[in-house]
Amino acid sequence: MKKALLILLAVGLAASAQATTFVDYGWEDGGTVLGIYPDPALPSIIATNVASWDGAPVNGGNFSLELVDNAESGTPQAFVAYLWFLQDGDEVTVGFYRYDTTPDASPSVRIWGHWNDELPDNPDGYSGSAGGNDDYGTGEGWDYTEWTWTVADGHTGLVVEARTYSGPGDTVWLDDLHIEIPDHVFVQIPGCSPVGTEENTWSQVKSLYR
How many CA atoms lie within 13 A of 148 on its CB side? Predict the structure, then answer.
């Protein structure tokens, strides 16, 4: 009985030791995106950091991310976060505010993801679709969308996408990216170097992403 109690205590301590880290990013530092698919050279999406005083829609602060469809067909993707050192059972929640004014019509944007177990060495790697949110938004200005991925099958890296559904020239905006991750996960978002959250206090991480 004493041995069983000690085992249960050890399991309880291990579970409580895994903390969740929150990372917020609002494009206030001039960043845009980490990558574009399918054609970064074209590029398939023209990503621009824009300011409220130039008439751009902004949800918080003074800046937001403008995504202009530049692909002839398909659903181009802008990569807004890389996450690695994931472990089976980890839960990763990512969301952002999005803006369009076309209810039930294009342009629209949703949050999606794909596994990349080659991160951080190869940001172009692909280890299968991770799925995402089927919510395309209200099309009535700013609204918030998010998705939670549960890591399984030995995947160690995740790329978070903003997928646009529109035609060439159509435009949507993003702002106020929010990430919730276990504290052993490393994260990279636009405008910032990779951060190992387990090696930083929350105040240090927060200062990097504001």
Answer: 7
